[in-house]
Amino acid sequence: MEAFYDGNPEYEWRRLEIHRIEYETTRRYLDIYLPKKSRILDVGGGPGRYSIYLASQGHNVTLFDLSSKNILLAKAKAEEQGVHLEGFIHGNALELDHHTKGRFDAILCMGPSYHLTDESQRHIVIDKCVNVLKPGGILFVSFISAFAPIIDMMKGYPHMILDEKDRLLDYLKDGTNIVSEENPGFTDAWFENPANIEGIMKKYPLEKLVITAIEGMLSPNEGKINSLPEDCFNAFIELSMKLSTNPMTWGSCEHMLYIGRISKS
Description:
CATH topology: Rossmann fold
Number of domains: 1
Shape: globular
Number of strands: 9
Helix content: 40-55%
CATH class: Alpha Beta
Largest sheet: 9 strands, mixed
Order of helices and strands: HHHEHEHEHEHHEHHEEHEHHE
Radius of gyration: 18 Å
Structural class: alpha/beta
CATH superfamily: Vaccinia Virus protein VP39
Number of helices: 13
């Protein structure tokens, strides 16, 4: 995983420019649920897209990432935009508690939860995030949907459906994605069935605030929506956010977001 991102640190920065719906919707949920001037830890925050945005909004943000090249790019982007981040930590999320000091008002775990293919490791990371939250702190956890490979094929290479149909359906039974010569492309990852997310997160001392489909029903038509005038684009984002907490829409998106609050006691 570290080698994948070290080899192309611009990848994630550009990815969120291309996937505007994902970025804009996530940004809006952060704005809704984060208290003002929060102390935030962005775990697996890559080159800092969300960290830099949140710092620009007055939050005290520390970026934590496995890739040293992502950290370097984040520092450069923050300086370029005149934004101050409280800290940059190069480390493994499985050892989160060894690298951080104090507790945080909010934690973003929007990467490790789908880059770790081992269930026990995903549990360790989320548990460590919970443990460094202040009482009443907010946890954001993102997931790649097990329906995402189907949507990706529809958008990018529908001509391959005859060869790939069975493999795509298999992700709904086992979300493990291992890169190989036969399965090139995205790095090793775990794709979660959206129906499982609430049960997974009930294992932790969190009050569920929302589970939402980030791209909602917009995902299959992402290209067309991205090219719209800004007022039309924003209208679609608003429409999607009104619908995307309905589980009936969850099979149409590529990313899911869980937001929960730890007990105040």
